[in-house]
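Slide 14.
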Amino acid sequence: MYSAFAPVVLHYRFLEARHALAPPSSEAQGAAEWEDLHDRYSPRVIEAMRGLQGYYVKVGQSLAGRTDTLPPQYTERLRGLEDQCPARPASEVRGIIERSLRRPLGEVFSSFEERPLGTASIGQVHRARLRRSGAEVAVKVMDPRAEGLFRSDMRTAKGFCRLFAPEQLIILDEIERQFLTEFDYRKEAEHLRVVRDNMRPFKRLVKVPDVHESVCTREVLVMEYLPGRKLVEAIREQGEAYAQRQGRTFRDLEREMHERVKREGLPPPYSGPPAWQIDAYRWALRARDACLNGGRAVANMLGWPLGWRFEYARSEAPLNAARTMDVLMRVMGHQVLRDGYFNADPHAGNFLLLPDGRIGLIDFGQVKQLTDAQRLRLCAMYKCLATGDRETLRQIAIENGYRSKRMDAEVMWRMTRFGLDQDGPDVTGGKNVQQFMDEQYARDPWEKTDDTIIMPVRVSFMLRGVGLSMGHPVSTVHYWWPVARAVLREQGSG
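Slide 15: predicted structure.
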């Protein structure tokens, strides 16, 4: 880890310091020097993450959608970590399953696809069919080395951060505690059951797979197979199709967006077309195709003796980013603030676009549970963010253990908005995420924070990254404050 990443960090820091002391002769020359570093190091960094797996893949997944923070050379490669990591050999997977279930694979499954549907940081998923019931299932198989490697990764990451990113140390203990819950699929089966029940109010919008408990163990999880495309795949396909129509490459468009964000900051939330408008456009495309194809079907039938053949129209309907983000933000707000039981790893590889229009919620290995007191405290923080009540927010932070060198109220306010709401230019001053955090840490170095908010911050940050990757930035407060307000009113403190 040190040999792969330390030289990269040092080279970037060196160039940053050199430009500060001796600015380049032109903006173009400075940009070219940064581009040279991005081109040189991005393949090396992402391949190192892929090879190290575990915690490093988790970090990469968190950053994959952050086109405002990382240049296209990095984000393009990081997306591969959201759904495709190195797969383990089929013979090894078969051995893990048979040892864990204590019976031959063929006694449990009538069919088992050796090629995985997807691979992640600690396991991989295969499509299969149960012999007894005939049900089509997804079988999640854990790498037996995963937990030991993760513990080692965390020790290394903490040491690395002490040297190169001390502002990140404050969150690593909570992240370690949370991630360690992933290494027992029996717990994930329980998470799936609880979240499936909690999501009943949203059953027309989302679906959580059912679990086949009789064939679940610590290393093997068997659940209902949900057909559909991963959201990360849909985002990638749409971006590439749009770039092709423009006669350009997807990387060119990402580079252009990255430069625009550097100049102007993030666009305001909801800057794109509303969901109903995109739905209307999708309907118009389908209607147009139906009209054209009706005429072409008649022409093909009449012209068949002469060998005439007209191709049928198949317009590619755009992904409704506005509606997708609306559903995800509402659902996750409900999980965090009302249930206090939520998926702490909501990257784009953990959502499926199902054929019936719903969104499949998958991968509940990393679930955070809040106490009622913690959940209400978080609701109170969203009230402060929504109403601009800086003093009450400061009091809540101090009462719950926040400590910093100067106890700067402005840093508390900005960091809370950044973590729990949005990172537009009015919060960050137009700086990218790392520059903003460096600036705030230099102004008032923090030493301790309330562990309660670390996972909600992670959820907010990752969901905003999903929205940004679809060109639809969102404000978490916009979606979650109505939920928080309802919860507080029910408790008599709204």
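Speaker note: Residues 321-490 form one domain.
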